[in-house]
Write a structure and sequence with these properties.
It is a single chain. The protein is mainly α and 56 residues long. Helices cover 30% and strands 0% of the residues. The mean pLDDT is 80.
Length: 56
């Protein structure tokens, strides 16, 4: 996981792959990450809780 916690409303996998360089370290040049491609095609499999709005 990335050094920071995943913010509310964000997919943990998307957050890690966007902010942690080690997630794609084993890929070659111009090689697609299978997990990212699956996310792009099928959407996030996580039900992500949204941050509650505190204005009321």
């Amino acid at each position: 996981m990335a050094g920071r916690d995943t913010p509310p409303g964000e997919c943990p996998q998307c957050w890690q792959h966007a902010h942690d360089r080690s997630a794609h370290r084993n890929l070659g040049p111009r090689e697609d990450c299978p997990q990212c491609v699956d996310h792009m095609r099928n959407g996030c499999p996580y039900i992500v809780p949204k941050k509650s709005s505190g204005w009321w």
